[in-house]
Write a structure and sequence with these properties.
alpha+beta; 2 domains; three-stranded antiparallel sheet
């Protein structure tokens, strides 16, 4: 009976862990540039201080990868919004070093730096933060070049001030951070890729499929109920066995 309860309790714990991943995906269904996180079960050997049989295994929930397919493009008309078409990433500066994101909802902060919605500076092709002239009207080109027209300037006075750093590292060379940003697994900054293209005035939404996420949540809820039913049945069987063996 103890082994039945242990197995069912372990299964229930794995279901709850996977449910938290699905819930996080569903909560970010409207988050720009969010990449769906994958969760799977895998077996691991049971290793303890006391000798154990080599065939004893347990299970854990792991999040080995993210779904990197493109999300829906939404036109916003905002000059500072941008979305990458196809493969590629925007480069941003974080306290932990250079990181990568698909979220192109940019803004200009009080220091006149181009930043993400999280406040991280967006990097230029030379690895430096992008500084926008005060009250300048920004225009992005398809390859990430940044043009600015100053307040009161004539259309012919538009200036090219830099280029966004667009990268395209191998998916298996990226690690997902707790902040939702991706970083190079080897700790090195990825080089700029001239083949990456973007479009201004658009934002890429999350690539999470809400219907699939809801189906996954319902399926997990049913699995959890089944595990709880096994535990209840094991407890009932133990009570019956005790009543048969007990003496009046």
């Amino acid at each position: 009976m103890d082994r039945i309860i242990y197995t069912a309790a372990g299964g229930a714990a794995r279901v709850l862990e996977q449910q938290s991943v699905i819930s996080n995906n569903l909560a970010n269904v409207n988050t720009a540039g969010f990449r769906e996180q994958m969760a799977i079960y895998r077996s691991v050997p049971v290793v303890g201080a006391a000798p154990t049989l080599p065939t004893r295994v347990s299970t854990v929930t792991s999040t080995p990868a993210s779904h990197l397919g493109q999300g829906v493009m939404v036109e916003t008309g905002h000059a500072l919004d941008a979305a990458i078409t196809g493969d590629g990433w925007f480069s941003v500066q974080t306290p932990q070093g250079e990181a990568y994101t698909r979220a192109g909802e940019f803004a200009v902060n009080e220091q006149n730096l181009l930043v993400t919605s999280q406040g991280y500076p967006v990097l230029s092709a030379d690895g430096a933060p992008v500084e926008i002239p005060e009250r300048g009207a920004v225009t992005f080109s398809g390859d990430g070049q940044i043009s600015v027209l100053g307040a009161g300037d004539r259309p012919n006075d538009i200036q090219l001030i830099g280029q966004l750093k667009l990268v395209n590292p191998q998916p298996d060379g990226l690690l997902r951070g707790g902040d939702g940003l991706f970083r190079a697994a080897n700790g090195q900054a990825a080089p700029a890729d001239p083949q990456v293209r973007m479009i201004a005035g658009f934002v890429e939404k999350s690539n999470v499929n809400p219907a699939e996420a809801m189906v996954g949540m319902i399926a997990n809820a049913r699995r959890f109920e089944m595990q709880m039913k096994v535990i209840q049945d094991a407890s009932s069987n133990a009570e019956r066995a005790n009543s048969i063996l007990s003496t009046n």
